[in-house]
Amino acid sequence: MDEEMRLRRLAENELIRKEANEEIERQAREEEREGGIRDPELEFFCACGRPDCDAKLLLTLSEYEAASGPDRFIVVPGHDNPQIEQVVEAHDRYLVVEKQAGFQPDERR
């Protein structure tokens, strides 16, 4: 597999996991509005894009908001890829990475 194809596949995997995480966030916000727990801790997927990654992150909605931009993703520490992204926030339990130009979601499709 050539490098461009590998990076494209990583990007597709990242986007799928980010979309799943956004659905988790949407449902939790809806439950909050209906009187549910405020700022609950939820299980989100690591959005590193590795095909074999099944890591999950326990984050509050407030913590997850750091990845609210279209070019930001939440990953497990050590799962960042300096070839295509830079770490913009580092925490003990998670990293927020931002895609470099050319690897942003809207540019990948």
Q: What does this 3D model show about the protein?
A:
- Helix content is 36%, strand content 23%.
- It is of the alpha+beta class and 109 residues long.
- It is elongated.
Report the strand count: 5
Q: What fraction, in percent, of the residue positions are helical?
A: 25-40%
Whole-number count of domains = 1
Biggest sheet, spatial arrangement of strands? 3-5-4
Strand content: 15-25%
Low-confidence stretches: none
Computed CA radius of gyration, to the nearest angstrom: 14 Å
Annotate the secondary structure layout:
Layout: H1 3-33, E1 41-45, E2 56-60, H2 61-64, E3 72-75, E4 85-90, E5 95-99, H3 105-108
Antiparallel strand pairs: 1-2, 3-5, 4-5
Highlighted features:
single chain; 109 residues; alpha+beta; three-stranded antiparallel sheet; two-stranded antiparallel sheet; 5 strands
